[in-house]
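Appendix B. Chain record.
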Amino acid sequence: MRPQRLGALLGLLAALTFGVSAPLSKLLLEDVEPTLLAGLLYLGAGLGLGLLRLVRADRSEAPLTRRDLPPLAGVVLLGGVLGPVLLLFGLDRVSGAAGALLLNLEAPLTILLAAWVFGEHLGRRAALASACILAAALVLRFSPGEIAVDGAGVVLIAAACLCWALDNNLTQRLTLRDPVALVRIKTLGAGLFNTVLAFALGASVPAASVLGLTLLLGLVSYGVSVVLDAYALRLHGAAREAAYFAAAPFIGALASLVLLGDRLGLGDAAAMALMIGGVALLLREDHDHEHTHEPLTHNHRHVHDAHHEHAHGADDPAGEPHAHVHTHPRLTHRHAHVSDLHHRHMHS
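Structure tokens predicted for this chain:
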């Protein structure tokens, strides 16, 4: 499968597995305090990925190094600790459908940060799409529809989206490393921190059945989903991946209609239409021009394609795909591409 199509598929699968978590988490909030729920969701992901590491290790991926510690710490703090707690406190103040739809703010915030702070290219279509999604969030906030929306809840969920937008861009910087190892460290670190904090604040252990369901939801929606998302970030860059992952709130909103009995008013339907339009614009963006790759030496999983023509030393691994330190020579060519870590070049 072509890398761009594979990236789209992985991004949409990540959106599906994460999207159902908003209404299901709201149901669990009836029995679990928000901070403890955040901790247990991430612990379920970390423990499950840890078991996967014991069963099957992927030695074709480049390992994390000491240089990766600063962005990795930011990923754990922003995406694993602050984001989930802010989201769950926000969900406690709004309906499940409203919370799911407001998660669409993550996409434009990710795109804007990717373009303005982290050097990804943002074309007119992507900028217009981001504006549509932001407008949809405003329509949702101020419409008199039947979705329950609280001002403080909106601010909390928006803050969670900002944390995850920063997390997405930092994670994209690390996706040349082993994504499973990256997500395992993130989820275990965040899970332990939030769980210990919750018990220190007086939270009690939920019933065994609730605990088991919470850990299982965490494995699927915060473990498998984030690993799929990390691979999509590797293939597409943070801005384009955000377009695919923007499907998650729609999935969550539809699940809320079934699981929580929420209803959509006219303003809510208009917000959803704006969001769908924004996502459609992002998905149709096409980028093809002549560009130059400057010399670069790094280590990541690769095959010997047009971007990876290099000689092997005696100690380099055989077979493909594989990971080892290699150098990209200067190369000028033209092809359809996205702003991944191999395509951060200037645009006129």
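Further analysis of this model is presented in Appendix C.
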